[in-house]
């Protein structure tokens, strides 16, 4: 490839080149031949961004953009669309500050998409600023921009803003509805809103029909509510309206998960066995469903069957299974599962897996074993693990262990507060309550005095009662 002809370089860009070296050669050939076609250089940007090394690929992609004497909006849009979300947002902000380009609807669509893929509080602030700019420039009426804005807000958990944009839209397509339903179904407290919005979608006279993506999200909402009648109603709608649902691995997985979480593991097994195709999420949903219903040995057996079928369990599989074992008290099965993660399946335990074991031992009253397990961890335990054990000490009336764990937590708090400011009150209050249970009133007073000296205020407790109708999909 040292003397690539011009046409050869162009044809290679239609292929997926896998190395930076090959792309640099094609890039050099385009430059030496004096090609200035934005569409060709757009393909080169996409190829660079698709490489496995994000740092070097981003550098060369930016060089393509800088090759043009005048900034080119098409290449800027391509770069925003193809680079990592953080880089996309920074790139957009940089060009906003230069004020030398007039952005179009694709620019805003791509940068909002980047904000949706990188959910955080700072990203949400950026999203709101972009929203204000869109309104100011009069692009807000574009359905693609509006839909991506809904997706951006929903991904960043600002469902009120997402719904406001959704309600203000004069035209919606299936992607718009899916973005809003997905946002609701991603949070348990808004699962019922997802079902209500789905019913609105069915009643809407715009002619927009639910897609397979819609139904997977609706099934997720039904599983979070845990109401079998609602889930069965959704399943019936899928069977009546969707072509060959048993051949859709995502639909099948959603049904397995829904029936498992709604208390009908036999129905979940029936769906699972009838599926023509399964992925790691399908096997995970079924194994977790068995564990949730106390069938720990069957869940472990399913892991072996899973491996025999050529699908290896991953970190999420073990997190889900260990969490299920924890909640139903399957101590032996959970410990066995943890110990064979690395030895049998080659999955290295991470903090969430250690947390599940600590929770499992703590809930079952094995406080000393939980303490020894934390101390022997090959990675440094975080405060969440110690809090789990401290909470169990209170439940199982073990003041001595509670005091030891509580003091460790306070040391962690002091270390963190030196960087983050005033520590929160929950660990101090928990230790104070442990001392109160043991009737060590001088120690209770000492902890309270520490809180006063450090300016730590105890947050007032609150409770809420939620009532939901089980008939969200009546008349479906």
What would you say this structure looks like, in words?
This protein has 476 residues and is an all-alpha fold. It is built from 26 helices and no strands. Helix 10 runs antiparallel to helix 11, helix 12 crosses helix 13 (212-225) and helix 25 (426-437) packs antiparallel against helix 26.
The oligomeric state is single chain
How many β-strands, per DSSP?
Answer: 0
| Tally of contiguous helical segments | 26
Mean pLDDT: 83
- Roughly what fraction of the amino acids lie in strands? under 5%
Dominant shape: globular
Provide the structure class: mainly alpha
**Share of residues in helices:** over 70%
Q: Flag low-confidence runs.
A: none
Radius of gyration: 27 Å
Short structural summary:
With 476 residues, the protein is mainly α. It is built from 26 helices and no strands.
């Amino acid at each position: 490839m040292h003397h690539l002809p011009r046409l050869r370089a162009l044809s290679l860009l239609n292929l997926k080149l896998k190395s930076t070296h090959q792309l640099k050669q094609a890039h050099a050939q385009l430059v030496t031949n004096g090609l200035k076609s934005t569409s060709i250089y757009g393909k080169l940007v996409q190829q660079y961004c698709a490489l496995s090394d994000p740092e070097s690929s981003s550098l060369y992609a930016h060089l393509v953009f800088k090759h043009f004497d005048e900034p080119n909006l098409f290449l800027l849009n391509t770069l925003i669309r193809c680079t990592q979300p953080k880089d996309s947002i920074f790139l957009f902000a940089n060009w906003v500050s230069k004020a030398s380009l007039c952005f179009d609807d694709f620019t805003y669509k791509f940068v909002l998409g980047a904000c949706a893929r990188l959910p955080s509080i700072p990203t949400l602030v950026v999203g709101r600023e972009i929203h204000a700019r869109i309104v100011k420039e009069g692009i807000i009426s574009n359905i693609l921009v509006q839909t991506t804005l809904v997706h951006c807000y929903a991904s960043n958990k600002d469902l009120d803003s997402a719904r406001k944009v959704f309600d203000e839209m004069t035209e919606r397509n299936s992607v718009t509805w899916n973005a809003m339903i997905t946002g609701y179904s991603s949070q348990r407290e808004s699962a019922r809103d997802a079902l209500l919005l789905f019913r609105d979608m069915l009643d809407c006279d715009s002619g927009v029909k639910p897609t397979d993506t819609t139904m997977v999200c609706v099934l997720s909402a039904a599983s979070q509510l845990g109401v079998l009648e609602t889930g069965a109603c959704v399943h019936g709608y899928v069977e009546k309206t969707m072509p060959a649902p048993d051949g859709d691995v995502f639909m099948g997985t959603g049904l397995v998960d829904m029936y498992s979480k709604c208390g009908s593991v036999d129905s979940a097994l029936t769906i699972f066995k009838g599926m023509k195709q399964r992925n790691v999420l399908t096997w995970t949903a079924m194994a977790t469903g068995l564990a949730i219903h106390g069938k720990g040995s069957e869940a472990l057996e399913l892991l072996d069957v899973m491996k025999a079928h050529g699908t290896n369990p991953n970190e999420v599989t073990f997190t889900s299974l260990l969490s299920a074992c924890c909640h139903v008290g399957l101590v032996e099965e959970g410990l066995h599962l943890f110990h064979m993660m690395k030895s049998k399946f080659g999955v290295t335990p991470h903090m969430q897996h250690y947390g599940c074991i600590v929770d499992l031992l703590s809930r079952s009253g094995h406080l000393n074993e939980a303490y020894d397990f934390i101390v022997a961890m090959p990675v440094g335990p975080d405060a969440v693990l110690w809090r789990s054990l401290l909470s169990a000490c209170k439940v199982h009336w073990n003041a001595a262990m509670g005091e030891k764990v509580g003091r460790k937590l306070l040391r962690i708090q002091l270390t963190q507060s030196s960087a983050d400011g005033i520590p929160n009150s929950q660990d101090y209050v928990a230790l104070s309550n442990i001392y109160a249970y043991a009737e060590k009133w001088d120690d209770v007073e000492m902890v309270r005095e520490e809180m006063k000296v450090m300016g730590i205020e105890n947050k007032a407790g609150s409770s809420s009662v939620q009532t939901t109708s089980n008939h969200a999909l009546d008349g479906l």
